[in-house]
Write a structure and sequence with these properties.
Blueprint (H helix, E strand, L loop, with lengths): L17 H14 L12 H8 L3 H14 L2 E4 L3 E4 L9 E8 L5 H16 L2 E10 L5 E2 L1 H7 L5 E5 L3 H10 L3 E5 L10 E5 L5 H10 L4 E6 L8 H6 L3 E6 L8 H18 L7 E5 L2 H13 L9 E7 L11 E5 L1 H18 L5 E3 L2 E3 L7 H10 L1
Parallel strand pairs: 3-4, 3-6, 6-7, 7-8, 8-14, 9-10, 9-11, 11-12, 12-13
Antiparallel strand pairs: 1-2, 4-5, 13-15
Helix pairs in contact: 1-3, 2-3, 4-11, 9-10
């Protein structure tokens, strides 16, 4: 707090209400420079006994001054005098993400949330929690940002250590990612169900009579189709792809997909009656390139499906059958939930995920229609 004495008193014989007198007194003190930008005013609890009024009066006065743009309330800090020459922010939203900026979904979601928050008048900070030298997570940057106070923190992906850190600091936070349930201390959760489209994929495989699906993946965090497919009576074989990440993770994944399928072609191990599901955009890009180099077509020579994010869809002569996520739409859902919390105090939790796009590379409906047209 400023430690300054209150430069005015209230007069019960004045025709103005006590709340109006308090608003006028504080406003004049700010305009005249008695209270400077950045000063922390006495709390409404301190002002009430000092001026001989109820807390209802002091709360109403602070609310009015906030609406006029003279002060802003900051959790855990107090009521601060604003610099009215600068842009006035309604509050502060922080997005916390794991280390690494090569995750497309994460990048687009963050951009969508940032744009929505700034458009709504909120200061926005984006923090990357890096791995500490001795292991664990380094929260130094996050803690420095939170020292300015935050109205809401959005924690990206399932990071229990980050959730626990935010809960311990008493910061209001919401989780976004593949989290089974709302973390302890969180105000809400926007959950990603990566498997949302798997039942539709299983139904498509069953419809075309596939006896086996080969799921090609590079990370165990990717979509697992096994349970839904086996429930439909379709066997699953999982094929792990490894790559040299010295030139970047994305390059390693794309090259790994190319090399795996080039080897399958070379060894004549591609099964025409199987479905090959690439559980990553970049993996699918390399695999499709290998098939094109070998002169193979889909679905005539090999049936393929893939995971896809709108914005980096795989380029192929036919529309690829895929589980498709819309990162921009996902970011807008997170932003809408955050704004609802900031205005009402309620964070509307929801579950989002990919949708199944039938495409043409499984020999699905579009191919059937094209065959009918030729006849």
């Amino acid at each position: 707090m400023t430690g300054k004495e209150i430069p005015f008193s209230l007069d019960r014989s004045d025709g103005r209400s006590l709340a109006r007198q308090l608003v006028d007194g504080l406003r004049t003190a700010i305009i005249d420079g008695y209270y400077l930008a950045g000063d922390i005013l006495p709390s409404y609890r301190e002002l009430a006994p000092a001026l001989g009024v109820s807390e209802i009066v002091t709360k109403a006065a602070f609310k009015q001054l906030g609406e006029e743009g003279f002060v802003v309330a900051r959790p855990r800090i107090g009521t601060i005098v604003r610099n009215r020459a600068e842009r006035q922010w309604r509050g502060h939203v922080v997005l916390v993400q794991p280390e690494g900026d090569d995750n497309y979904l994460q990048t687009i979601v963050a951009g969508s949330v940032r744009d929505a928050m700034i458009d709504a008048g909120y200061l926005f900070s984006q923090v990357c929690v890096k791995t500490a030298e001795r292991g664990g997570e380094d929260f130094a940057h996050l803690d420095a940002v939170l020292s300015r106070s935050a109205d809401l923190v959005i924690a990206v992906y399932n990071r229990p250590v980050t959730f626990a850190h935010l809960a311990k600091k008493g910061v209001p936070y919401a989780a976004f990612g593949g989290v089974a349930k709302k973390p302890k201390g969180a105000v809400g959760l926007t959950r990603i169900d990566y498997y949302m489209a798997v039942p539709d994929f299983a139904a498509e495989c069953e419809r075309i009579g596939a006896k086996k699906v080969v799921e090609v993946y590079w990370s165990d965090q990717m979509s697992h189709t096994t349970q839904a497919l086996e429930t439909a009576g379709i066997a699953v074989e999982r094929l792990h792809v490894e790559g040299d990440v010295s030139r970047g993770r994305l390059e390693a994944v794309r090259r790994g997909g190319f090399e795996v399928f080039a080897r399958l072609v070379r060894e004549r191990r591609l099964e025409k009656d199987a479905v090959y599901f690439m559980a990553d955009d970049y993996l699918a890009s390399g695999a499709l390139m290998a098939l094109a180099c070998a002169g193979l077509r889909s679905p005539e020579d090999v049936r393929i499906a893939a995971w896809g994010n709108i914005g980096i869809s795989n380029i192929y002569s036919r529309e690829v059958s895929r589980m498709e996520m819309d990162p921009s739409w996902a970011g807008k859902q997170v932003a809408a939930a955050a704004l609802e919390y900031l205005t009402s105090g309620i964070y509307p939790s929801a579950t989002i995920g990919p949708q199944w796009i039938a495409g043409e590379t499984l020999g699905g409906a579009k191919d059937d229609e094209q065959e009918d047209d030729r006849q």
